[in-house]
Each structure stands twice: as structure tokens, then as C-alpha cells.
Amino acid sequence: MFPATAERVRENTADDVNASIRRRTEERVRRIAAGGPRAIERRLAELDREWDVERCVETLAPTFSLAGLLLGATVDRRWLLLPAVVQAFFLQHALQGWCPPVPVLRRFGVRTTSEIEEEREALKALRGDFWEVPPAPPDDRSADRALAAAER
Prior knowledge:
With 152 residues, this protein is mostly helical. It has 2 domains: 15-50 and 113-152, no CATH class; 52-110. The chain is built from 8 helices and no strands.
């Protein structure tokens, strides 16, 4: 009935959007691989600060709920409907991985935690952190091997 937590957002995202996000990740890993060790370290630090789709939804929901409560208390009681609708969608997102902002966020390229982690693992593999993927000169093949290892 409920999709697995790690895959629920991807399962509720259009295939072309998932493919676009994947393609951009692959291109980024290839570009970073060509940039060498310092580029890898910089990108790993950036990934530590990247917001995933869950964090975005978790921020949007209370923002709109609080706005609705404030407007309901100061402008018109009908604004109190906004937090109720937002929380219903937030519950739907928790259970199914979909709510109205998710398709928009995904089209803007906001990734899931697992998509971010795949890039992180590929970069660590390029850096030589794993014995299964020996460090190699930066080229497209080493980036491809690192991405394949990260998917395992």
C-alpha cells in the first residue's frame, strides 16, 4: 500500500524528470572528476549543505501553516483553512511521497537524500575511499565506474 521510504518520491516523479536529475548528476560527477582532488573535496562540502526534497517540504509545510494561522487570527478566519489543507498534503507526502510542491521541486532539480548520497559515494570512490574502485586518472570511464559502484 505504501511505497518504500527511500523510493517514494522517485516513484511519484515523472520518468523524464528522474532521468534529467540523473543525467545532471552524472555530468556533474564527470566534471568534478576532471577537476581533480580539490574539486572533489569542494563538491563533497557542497553536498553536505544541499537540501533534499524532504527538507524543502518540511520547510514549506510549516511556513504556509504558520502564515495561514497568522492570517486567520488577524485578517479573516477563513485563512484557517490553509493550515488544514497544508497539513493534509503533508500527511499525504509522509505516507505516499507526493504532495503538490514535490513535482515543482523535482522539476527544479531538488533531489532525494538517496540521489544526493549516490553522488557523494561516487565522488568518494573517485577519491579512492573504497577498495572496490581503485583510484584512477580522472576521465569519463573512472567517473562511470564510480557512479556504477555508488548505485550498488
